[in-house]
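Run log // design_07
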């Protein structure tokens, strides 16, 4: 298949250090060529002109064109020149008369522009051929090809048609591979000839310069392999002075290519270019065992056929790429939609792994993101993947990298060849570099070469003259350590996916920034609200102290009642927070609020109707509303004296919505509030604004009335209505614990001095004989080493740390302990302390006794 350059191009068929070969332009024996400017023949007359004209080449140089052509012919040629451009494909004028032609010979003339010169190529006109018949045959062939499904089917038909139309012994469809080697994909040959189908040819058989010419000039004809052609006269004085024959239809080829064809037993050849998207995709290569001059009309028809064939192959390839691109777009769109609802890019990618592996024809994939490796399918080990990533890190950033031979990227790839031989990487971040990696397994295959590919040419006996190989026997090569090639469509889809992932990452970064901004705003609001609530609680505690001091006579009674009221307030707060994540009872909420604030007045609240379980959102909002209603009634309404009552009526509508009626009666006369405070706003707006329900309140003189409507989406009616327990009932149940000896030696770790002192005093009153109090973790660990306690009470949060290390040591030594927390729950990363008891702050002596005995009871049960 060897072809090389002549004319002004350099030809270098080897990588040796010798000078490249310079060839003078030549034309073939079945025609002659002249170059002219305007009406003057100036130079470049072929030596064989005397074979067709009475005059020889030397006598024509410098003569007028009118000596060769009559005015009407010159006029015709000028009209054709009007539409030509330098370097373009020649136009054809058929059956022209030429002065001094031997035997009145007519000529077909090909005309084109080369630089500043007009090049005329004369071929003796053959007997009149029916050009329309050939065009009709091409049209029928193209119609047939347009109905074929695959590129290989198109190539098989193209070789059969070309062989029939031109009458050549062998016609091959020769296709270039991504590595520039060529392969015979289809073939039609005469009976008895050896088949070249499936043979592979090295890239050096058709060098780069020749491929450029094949795109520029789509047909190459060699009528007689045994003729070296005729030189252009006068001989060029320099390379720059030589005539550019790139667009010539009669141009001969290098002696090296002629020798190459002789070694193959070829007498004549025609090559037709298949150009796809501006690149040489393949050739229709035609060989004949005898010299053969191809008629101009047949040649032009085959040029038309090759051009139409190129368009059809391009369309088939585009269709295949389009189907692939459609599937790739769908995968990318699914990823983009999923990523919009998830913050973990790696998880979203792996969720689409099955489709991605199928689309990319890969056997496995890995996602390197945020320092972790996630895999799917057949992949190397995590250590090997990290080694691949290190090699990828030295590649140009921000580019898709693909290789079917991993050993070119990672020298240690042979150690995991059984898992992967090829990789395609998609970078999805800059620093640190994260990747999506697709792996392909090894594809061991046999490649049949047309001769030894390692020796495409050898040095000849004439100095720097190159001699092409003489052996074209099939040479099999076993290819190992490689996967299937990654296609351009797959690489393009990977690049598109890379861009999409980066867009998603940027969008998530923007979302995270917005979320941080919203969180900061919420935090500011929360701090303001917390400040408001703390002030209210402090005010309430102050009021409790003042009211209690008026009614109690002794210090002991004062302390007991005050402690009870503060604990009731804490219990109500715990109920709001603890029930925030499950459906919770509205009856229990109302009863707890009443007991927390009213104590002995709580019996003056009557609740009628079925119990309703509220979602966390509704429960939180109703807790605030009931709290404000209860507080106002205790301060200014029916519960502010000894005779008033509050009736709460719960009714479930047919549509599932909940009506809450609040009626105060028998209390002092009511006056509307003189100003709208935060509590009034909560009462009037919390349910409508947060739950899209209804709220109304009327400050009638006889008593406050209010109505709240909670939409059905927030309400579940209990089949067995929960009966709210009073604080006394709860305390009674909690006291119903078995008789267990109270621990004598207790270790207390508490960083708040006042709480630590109160706890120490309470434990001593409960029966402890020694209480060791420590203010930090280090002191607690030291105390544990010095003396083994019977029990430990550990505050979870200790300044900048926590008490978990001490708890682990206690568990290791089987010592019982409970946690104390102002947050009301226990949160750890590893779940080591699941099941441990937590006493919420503030706690009193009775609560301490209950939780310590409950812990010991559990210990005894174990």
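design_07 sequence
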């Amino acid at each position: 298949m060897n072809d090389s350059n002549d004319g002004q191009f350099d030809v270098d068929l080897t990588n040796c250090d010798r000078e490249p070969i310079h060839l003078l332009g030549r034309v073939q024996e079945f025609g002659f060529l002249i170059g002219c400017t305007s009406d003057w023949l100036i130079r470049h007359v072929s030596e064989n002109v005397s074979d067709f004209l009475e005059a020889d080449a030397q006598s024509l140089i410098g003569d007028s064109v009118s000596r060769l052509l009559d005015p009407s012919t010159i006029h015709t040629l000028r009209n054709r020149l009007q539409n030509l451009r330098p370097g373009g494909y020649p136009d054809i004028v058929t059956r022209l008369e030429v002065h001094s032609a031997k035997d009145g010979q007519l000529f077909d003339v090909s005309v084109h522009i080369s630089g500043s010169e007009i090049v005329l190529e004369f071929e003796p006109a053959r007997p009149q051929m029916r050009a329309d018949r050939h065009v009709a045959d091409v049209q029928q062939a193209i119609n047939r090809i347009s109905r074929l499904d695959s590129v290989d089917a198109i190539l098989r038909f193209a070789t059969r048609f070309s062989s029939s139309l031109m009458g050549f012994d062998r016609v091959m469809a020769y296709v270039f591979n991504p590595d520039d080697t060529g392969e015979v994909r289809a073939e039609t040959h005469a009976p008895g000839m050896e088949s070249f189908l499936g043979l592979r040819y090295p890239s050096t058989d058709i060098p780069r310069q020749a491929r450029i010419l094949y795109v520029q000039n789509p047909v190459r004809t060699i009528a007689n392999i045994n003729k070296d052609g005729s030189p252009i006269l006068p001989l060029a004085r320099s390379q720059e002075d030589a005539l550019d024959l790139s667009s010539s239809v009669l141009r001969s080829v290098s002696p090296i290519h002629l020798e190459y064809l002789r070694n193959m037993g070829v007498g004549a050849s025609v090559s037709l270019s298949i150009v796809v998207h501006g690149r040489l995709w393949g050739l229709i290569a035609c060989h004949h065992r005898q010299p053969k001059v191809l008629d101009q009309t047949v040649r032009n028809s085959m040029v038309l056929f090759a051009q139409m064939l190129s368009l059809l192959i391009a369309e088939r390839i585009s269709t295949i790429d389009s189907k692939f691109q459609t599937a790739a777009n769908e995968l990318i769109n699914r990823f983009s939609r999923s990523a919009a609802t998830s913050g973990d890019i790696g998880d979203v990618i792996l969720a689409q792994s099955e489709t991605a592996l199928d689309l990319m024809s890969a056997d496995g994939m890995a996602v390197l993101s945020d320092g972790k490796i996630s895999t799917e399918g057949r992949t190397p080990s995590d250590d090997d993947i990290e080694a691949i990533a290190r090699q990828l890190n030295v590649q140009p950033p921000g580019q898709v990298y693909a290789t079917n031979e991993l050993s070119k990227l990672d020298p240690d790839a042979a150690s995991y060849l059984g898992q992967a031989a090829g990789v395609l990487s998609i970078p999805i971040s800059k620093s640190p570099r994260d990747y999506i990696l697709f792996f392909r397994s090894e594809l061991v295959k046999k490649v049949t070469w047309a001769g030894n590919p390692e020796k495409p040419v050898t040095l000849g006996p004439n100095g720097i003259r190159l001699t092409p190989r003489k052996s074209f026997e099939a040479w099999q090569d076993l290819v190992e350590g490689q996967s299937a090639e990654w296609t351009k469509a797959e690489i393009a889809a990977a690049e598109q996916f890379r861009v999409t992932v980066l867009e998603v990452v940027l969008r998530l970064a923007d979302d995270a920034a917005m979320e941080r901004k919203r969180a900061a705003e919420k935090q500011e609001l929360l701090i303001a609200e917390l400040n408001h609530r703390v002030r209210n609680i402090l005010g309430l505690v102050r009021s409790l102290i003042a009211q209690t001091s008026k009614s109690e006579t002794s210090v002991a009674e004062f302390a007991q009642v005050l402690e009870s009221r503060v604990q009731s307030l804490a219990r109500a707060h715990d109920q709001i927070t603890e029930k925030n994540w499950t459906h919770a009872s509205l009856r229990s909420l109302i009863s707890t609020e009443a007991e927390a604030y009213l104590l002995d007045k709580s019996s003056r609240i009557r609740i009628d109707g079925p119990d309703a379980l509220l979602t966390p959102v509704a429960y939180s909002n109703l807790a605030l509303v009931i709290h404000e209603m209860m507080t106002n009634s205790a301060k200014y309404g029916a519960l502010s004296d000894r005779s008033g009552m509050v009736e709460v009526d719960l009714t479930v509508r047919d549509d599932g919505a909940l009506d809450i009626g609040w009626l105060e009666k028998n209390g002092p006369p009511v006056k509307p509030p003189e100003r709208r405070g935060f509590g009034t706003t909560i009462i009037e707006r919390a349910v409508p604004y947060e739950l899209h329900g209804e709220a109304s309140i009327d400050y009638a003189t006889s008593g406050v009335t209010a109505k709240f409507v909670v939409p059905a989406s927030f309400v579940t009616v209990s089949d067995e209505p929960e009966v709210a327990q009073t604080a006394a009932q709860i305390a009674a149940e909690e006291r119903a614990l078995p008789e267990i000896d109270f621990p004598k030696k207790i270790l207390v770790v508490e960083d708040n001095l006042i709480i630590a002192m109160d706890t120490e005093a309470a434990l001593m009153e409960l029966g402890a004989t020694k209480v060791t109090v420590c203010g930090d973790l280090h002191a607690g660990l030291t105390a544990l080493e010095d003396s083994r306690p019977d029990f430990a009470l550990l505050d979870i949060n200790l300044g900048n740390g926590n008490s978990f290390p001490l708890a682990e040591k206690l568990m290791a030594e089987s010592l019982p302990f409970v946690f104390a927390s102002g947050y009301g729950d226990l949160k750890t990363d590893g779940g080591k302390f699941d099941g441990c008891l937590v006493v919420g702050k503030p706690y009193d002596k009775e609560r301490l006794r209950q939780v310590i005995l409950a812990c010991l009871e559990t210990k005894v049960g174990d």
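The domain at 345-444+481-488 is CATH 3.30.450.270 (Beta-Lactamase).
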